[in-house]
Amino acid sequence: MRRRNLWITAIVLSLAGCVPSTRSAELAPVDPATPAAASELADTRWQALRERADAIGWTDETRERFVAALPKIETHLHLDGALSPKTIAALAQDQGYAPLMDRSEAEIAALTVVDTPREDLATVLEAFFTIYPLLHTPEALETVSYDLIANAHEQQIRYLEVRFAPVLQAVPEQGFTIEAVLEAVLAGLERGRRDFGVESAVIVCLFRPLPVEVNATMLEAAIAFKDRGVVGIDLAGDESEVPLTTFADLYRQAGDAGLYRTVHAGEVADSDDLALAVELGVDRIGHARYLDADPALLEEVQRRGIALEINLTSNHRTGAIATLAEHPAKRWFDAGVAINVSTDDPGVFGITLTGEYLLLIQELGFSVGDLIELQRRTIATLFMSEADKRRLEARMLADIEALLDAV
Q: Is the pLDDT of residue 109 over 90?
């Protein structure tokens, strides 16, 4: 009966995301006039939920069901890396794209899904070149953005931040500008919000292989869209080829303009990008796999409260770690480092956020209570106002309490 109740609760919570709800506000009132008191109360509730979860005698089946139903947040997700073979096939058919339109989903998967570890990051990035030609129209970008939200809803994701480099989708000679790319993606995300209740925001990716001048135009667009759904910038691409120093001035400009800043750094060995990222005062760091090599820098990251975006399967498939079990995420978590966990490129790797959470348990020794605590820490790292964080937190707390009540 308890398993049945848990399953029913998950369905109810899923359906609840389709319409505006005041239930969280009723169960967890937030007084904006006393943010310190509200934060203290919320912390007490989080700790109580964590202890309740760790006191339960989970079986593999009940644990997996709970993790599937657990409200989640995703912060490190590339739009162009989120397309499934099914979506790619549909886009190819709609656009009459000859190289892919007559291929089966299995054949497309062979070209675009990296399902085993590769020797390095550069090898993995080759999969994206099959996808890019399909993302040069507003209709395609609105569709894939909407589908992203629909998929997030299925996984009980309450909020996500999606990133991409709009210049890679733009076709200026056809009037499809960087700004038009952003408008198409934001339209798809908004339509998804209305239909599924999943909130989202955009991070504009600067791209290492492109000239600084081209990246500057993307930064200008990000600043122009700052109050229209764009919340920050990132720097993606192979850091072993083009270092962060090349874009340091752009990062300073972004900070001065009020944008949040994250950066891919420490994804490959022998990179100086981690140290410079800390010096530049970024808010988060993506991957940071090799941060352990510099204990003093790790201590500084923790002192400054810089959050680390963890991507387990991605690091394994790109060769950053030889086995999932060697990833330092659990050590960082136990030490109190601010971490969050995401998929990076769920389409390219053929994974889900639910699956990544299960890997935390199976490979790194996280408990169910740890996953609940992970949600608390993740909210604190989001690129949103403190008031919006408190509203999201109230919703998450109420939904997790309902799930535990059903166990």
A: yes
Point out the catalytic residue in the list 267, 309, 356, 393: 267
340-351 per-position pLDDT tens digit? 999 999 999 999
pLDDT value at 141 more than 70 = yes
Which residue, among 366, 343, 339, 344, has the nearest Cα to 356 in the 3D structure? 343
Residues 6+ apart with CB under 8 A from 150: 192, 195, 196
In eight-state DSSP terms, residue 308 is E
Residue 62 pLDDT > 50: yes
Residue 242 has pLDDT above 50, yes or no: yes
Q: Using one digit for the tens of pLDDT, what is the confidence trace for 307-340?
A: 999 999 999 999 889 999 999 999 999 999 999 9
* pLDDT at residue number 31: 53
How far apart are the C-alpha atoms of 114 and 91, rounded to whole Å?
20
Domains of the chain: 2-67+394-405 (no CATH), 72-366 (3.20.20.140)
- Structure tokens, 300: 């500084």
Active site residue 199: no
* E-assigned strand segments in 66-145: 72-78
Which residues, in sequence order, are bridge partners of residue 350?
none
Name every residue whose Cβ is closer than 8 Å to that of residue 334 and which is 6 or more positions away in sequence.
none
Q: How many CB atoms lie within 10 A of CB 166?
A: 27
Q: What is the spatial distance between Cα 346 and Cα 348, in angstroms, rounded to a whole number? A: 6
- Whats the size of the chain, residue-wise? 407
Name which of 216, 135, 229, 148 is nearest 182 in CA terms.
229
Q: Which pLDDT score is estimated for 38?
A: 77
Tell me, what amino acid is at 346? P
Q: List, in sequence order, every residue forming a beta bridge with 161; answer none if it has no partner.
A: 201
What are 285's strand-pairing partners? 308
Query: Collapsing DSSP states into helix, strand and coil, what is residue 311?
Result: coil
Alpha-carbon gap, residue 277 to 309, rounded angstroms: 14
Cβ contacts of residue 291 below 8 Å, gap of 6+?
Answer: 266, 274, 285, 297, 298, 301, 308, 328
* Strand ranges across the sheet with 157-164: 72-78, 157-164, 199-207, 230-236, 260-261
